[in-house]
Amino acid sequence: MIPAADKPRRLFFLDWVRILAFFVLILYHVGMYYVTWDWHVKSVNASDAIEPFMNLSSPWRLGLLFLVSGVASSYIFERLGALRFLRQRSLRLLPPLLFGMLVIVPPQSYFEVVEKVAYSGSYFDFMRLYLTGYHGFCREDCLIMPTWNHLWFVAYLWVYTLVLAALIPALGERLDRLAQRVGGLLTGWRIIVLPVAVLALARLALAARYPSTHALAGDWFNHAIYLSLFLLGAVLGRVPQFWPRLDALRWASLAIALACWALLTIWWSMPHEGMSATQHEVGMVVTRIVYALCTWSAIAAACGFAHRHLQVDNAARRYLTEAVFPVYILHQTLIVSIAHWLKPVRLAPGVEASILVVLTVTLSFGVFELVRRNALLRPLFGLAPLAGQARATRSLAADAA
């Protein structure tokens, strides 16, 4: 086992990465209102104009969150042990997931059927249908209810937590040896090439056969990507010497990620109708490899820049670390609801989008301020009990000492 003196301390820069990634998610979901891709509600001004800029974060945003969650989970397991780890993670993830599906998410589905199938019933009428699993709201596909919508991330994270909780005891001391071996491999050019090879292989083998569903069961392509990154994070959380290597590669990683984004944008903008089947197939293979390179190089850049500039603990980090999960739970329902209510006002898209961002952030943090003070609401938004929060604060202070 790694000697206690060499165990990694809390990686504060990864807290900042998680915080910033969730704020990018708010901007992304506001953008979903204005693009041509299917979403719950749509602006009358929706077009493909900002889609290339939306794709700046699409390849890496969620993969980064799963990687950071893997690091944090490994850290928590080290501190609590298997049973307490499972209990803590289940209490943090399952009540918000169930509460979210029953209370937070339904307005998204309600406004979706109002806009897409001209549903005229009241919200209470809709909730009776929602809770009884009504599947009659159909266009090309039928709306599945109840649903977790954006909270799919929480369901996946809980399942991956179970996998990790089984693997760590099964591997025992071999896990630390594996971590050191992986850390030894990921040096120099291999930091980029080896993770990209795994991600590209998963994308080439599974992307076409198992399109993304976020339904958990049968979503094999997403599991191959996200579980791999989650487990990689759990391993790298035990290799503190790995993170400075990303620091050294941060500019190169950023350049690679931006170049990949440019190539992907060109491919997606090209007219494919005139291509032969062979040309299109070769193009798809190359595109999937480039997408994998974009995913990992952007993750490496984000972690590298954060390690260089954000390995700091302060009151803002502690506040935002607690706030970010409740804000995540709330943000999409607020965006969908406010967008629907603002539609008759017919604001200019730029003004409307700015208002959506401002109201979503301020209302999310306003609700968080209420929740964090209420012992009954805290568990429903993934917050530790007040007494437990005080103990965790003392523990973090000891870790940072």
TrEMBL record:
It holds the Pfam family Acyl_transf_3. PANTHER family: BLR4337 PROTEIN, GLUCANS BIOSYNTHESIS PROTEIN C. One of its GO terms (molecular function) is acyltransferase activity, transferring groups other than amino-acyl groups. Residues 13-367 form the Acyltransferase domain. It comes from the Bacteria. The chain crosses the membrane at residues 12-35, 62-81, 93-111, 153-172, 184-208, 220-239, 251-269, 289-307, 319-341, 353-371. InterPro entries: Acyl_transf_3_dom (IPR002656), Glucan_succinyl_AcylTrfase (IPR050623). This is Acyltransferase 3 domain-containing protein. The keyword Ribonucleoprotein does not apply. Keywords: Membrane, Transmembrane, Transmembrane helix.
